[in-house]
Amino acid sequence: MNADKIETFDVVVVGGGGAGLAAAAEAARLGRSVVLLEKNPQLGGSTAWSVGSMSITNSPHQLKRGIRDTPQEHFEDLELLAGKYAPRDNLQLRRILVDNTTDIFEWLRGLGLEFAGPMLEPPHRYSRMHLVLPNSRAFPRYLGRHCARLGVSIRTDTRAERLIVEGGRVTGVYARSAGGLGVDYRARGGVVLAAGDYSAGRELKARFAGEEVAQLEAVNVTATGDGHRMALEIGAVVVNGDIVRGPIMRFVPPSHDRWILKLPPWRWLARSMRLAMDHLPDAWLRPLAMSFLTTALGPSLELFKHGAVLVNRNGERFADELAAPARAVPRQPDKAAYIVFDHKLAQRFTAWPNYISTAPGLAYAYLADYRRNRADIYHESPTIEGLARSMGAPGAALARTFNDYNGAGREARPALDMAPFYALGPVKSYVVFTDGGLKVTERLEVVREDGMVIPGLYAAGSAGQGGLLLEGHGHHLGWAFISGRIAGRNAAFNVPPK
Ligand SMILES: Cc1cc2nc3c(=O)[nH]c(=O)nc-3n(C[C@H](O)[C@H](O)[C@H](O)COP(=O)(O)OP(=O)(O)OC[C@H]3O[C@@H](n4cnc5c(N)ncnc54)[C@H](O)[C@@H]3O)c2cc1C
């Protein structure tokens, strides 16, 4: 297809999430002309969807608490976190990650970002998890502003469709704006693919992770793996494509943003929050943490061990709750389910260690938190009939489900027979993110199956994950920013002298 227009830059970056913004900023810092293409109306991608946790070594926050941490210890702890997948990890990229967390954290803080922490998440041997304040939307806000100041040309509503290859070298990207204008964005130095993961990319999920995963909804519905697809079309390969975070049951999101996500990412506000988190008693901070937690997370499987059952919109049980029930949810009407229980179980889930949801190391949400923060998914009634009405399920069917369960269906689990009765839902099964990334070198150059570099093409973040395992919490964001800067730097250095 012929372009309506040709524009030429030193570096073309595809994607305006954490990796793309870091790449663009780095190339611009080195004096290059940079264009960043973002298909959505706003910057942010999954980076702005994230909880905002980053696992960092040697942060000022750690030092203040007397924690003496090292990249080598972080490297070893990542092995523990990787568990059964450890033999499939890319150790060169893991080394790059752990060697650069201190610097990336200082870079982000230097741009004005504020973090709370550190918090402990075993098997990390030290508290390493830091949380951006007031929420993860601060990332695109601060990095976007930094890029604009450095002169990066940011084009939102502009979808990259395919790579331009000439003489075996990537020389640009063909992209289309929301208005339909087709532009060849030519790159003298290189193209950086930072288009995120394929959690919402049906074909890529089917190809790499199987049909069952392909059926699952994604948290970020615009993460369609365009970067992976464009690179695959010219001979690149995906590593660890079957490793996905999901299916995971999560409560459906509220119909509009909760107040915590609406907090503007102003620095004075973030700083006040950090001071409050450092000095105020936990009881004062709980409402804040809870509002966030009950927006973003899913139910603990402990609920089922203690007797809760899963029913669909017809009020029917459909799975063994103790055997990976998340897999069965997508086959139910509207791909939705409800967690149903009685007063005995409700009383149990009011205090540690029986929580409904957790962001590990950060906070725990109990039933009362859901009653307060998520009235839209919280159902309670003195009768089963009333509970069914609140859920929009047929009363007779739900009553039958309770009877069957209390009769023969519960094995060793307690009966659900004490009023009032409760339900939380709808829940759905999601893919939160996919870990398959394009095979890359340590310079973030994209390579073919045989290891030969595709000249002019770089990848970063989820697109450039290259077989690196990022288990636990807070490593994906670190990788996005770190790999983005490296890819941007190398694409900038690749510009031929005039
Ligand atoms: C709910 C949730 C919570 C998470 N919490 C955490 C956490 O607390 N800590 C952590 O470390 N990780 C977390 N993650 C993972 C982390 O957010 C991502 O791995 C990381 O942000 C990926 O960054 P990225 O820049 O590669 O991709 P993204 O941030 O997704 O950016 C990719 C960008 O590319 C754009 N794009 C895509 N295709 C095109 C195209 N064709 N043309 C132009 N633009 C395009 C997208 O619109 C998007 O803006 C979480 C993820 C989710 C979904």
Descriptive keywords:
498 residues; alpha+beta; FAD/NAD(P)-binding domain; Flavocytochrome C3, Chain A, domain 1; six-stranded mixed beta sheet; 18 helices; 23% strand; binds flavin-adenine dinucleotide
Task: Give the arrangement of secondary structure elements.
Blueprint: E1 5-14, H1 18-29, E2 34-37, H2 45-49, E3 53-55, H3 60-64, H4 71-82, H5 91-110, E4 114-119, E5 129-133, H6 138-149, E6 153-155, E7 158-166, E8 169-177, E9 182-193, H7 202-209, H8 211-214, E10 217-218, H9 226-232, E11 238-239, E12 244-245, E13 248-251, H10 259-262, H11 267-279, H12 282-296, H13 302-305, E14 309-311, E15 337-342, H14 343-348, E16 357-359, E17 363-365, H15 367-373, E18 378-381, H16 384-391, H17 395-409, E19 421-431, E20 433-434, E21 437-438, E22 445-447, E23 453-459, H18 476-493
Parallel strand pairs: 1-2, 1-9, 2-6, 9-23, 10-19
Antiparallel strand pairs: 3-5, 4-5, 7-8, 8-9, 11-21, 12-20, 13-19, 14-15, 15-19, 16-17, 18-19, 22-23
Helix pairs in contact: 1-6, 1-18, 4-5, 5-18, 16-17
The structure holds flavin-adenine dinucleotide (FAD).
Short description:
The chain is of the alpha+beta class. It is 35% helix and 23% strand. The radius of gyration is 24 Å and the shape is globular.
Instruction: Specify the helix fraction band.
Output: 25-40%
Let me know the largest β-sheet.
Answer: 8 strands, mixed
Low-confidence spans: pLDDT under 50, at least 5 residues?
A: none
Structural class: alpha+beta
How far do the termini sit from each other? 30 Å
**How many DSSP helices?**
18
- What name does the CATH topology of the largest domain carry? FAD/NAD(P)-binding domain
Mean pLDDT: 91
Oligomer: single chain
CATH superfamily of the largest domain: FAD/NAD(P)-binding domain
- Overall morphology: globular
Highest-level CATH class of the largest domain: Alpha Beta
Overall structural domain count? 2
Number of strands: 23
Return Rg in Å: 24 Å
What ligand molecules are bound, each kind once? Answer: flavin-adenine dinucleotide
The fraction of residues assigned to DSSP E strands is: 15-25%
